[in-house]
Amino acid sequence: MLPYQKRKNNWFPKILYYEASIYELKEYIESIKDESFIQNLFPSVQKILSENLFPDIIKDANEELKNTIKSQDKLLEDTIKNQIDKLLKDLKAQIDESVKTQINEALKDPINKINKLIKFIEKKESE
Fold first, then answer.
1. Is 103's pLDDT higher than 70?
2. Per residue in 50-89, pLDDT tens?
3. Distance, first Cα to last Cα, the chain
4. Exposed, middle or buried, 23 (CB in 10 Å: 0-12/13-18/19+)?
């Protein structure tokens, strides 16, 4: 290649990015027993290895998930409880109304008979 072609950043950028799994990288580095190799690694990798951040990150993620699940469970439980209470109130109102109409229907006929009897007695007394 010509020198001016090599200097084109869109063809050959100065920084190359690679994708790698952190867990696979950790397993690979742990499999290496030679400490001199680890000494020659990049500072960011040395920092990760020295601090051993992976278990903390996993624990933090697990705690966050547990807290989220607990809050969602509590929210769901409260919502279900509110819906059950509302449905029970509606059902109670419907039952009360139904019983009230049945009682009114049952008492309607005897009340009419009693009213007729009272009118008949009043009519007899007035004569």
1. yes
2. 655 556 666 777 888 899 999 999 999 999 999 999 999 9
3. 135
4. exposed
Torsion of CA 28, 33, 36, 37, to 10 degrees: -20
Tokens of 14: 């100065």
pLDDT at residue 113, as a whole number: 82
Residue type, 22: I
Distance of CA 103 to the CA centre of its chain: 47
Position 41 pLDDT exceeds 90? no
Task: Kindly state the tokens that stand for 53.
Answer: 């951040």
Name residue, tokens 């109409």: 101
- Long-range (24+ apart) CB contacts under 8 A made by 30-38 are none
Name the phi and psi angles at 21, rounded to 5.
Answer: -75, 130
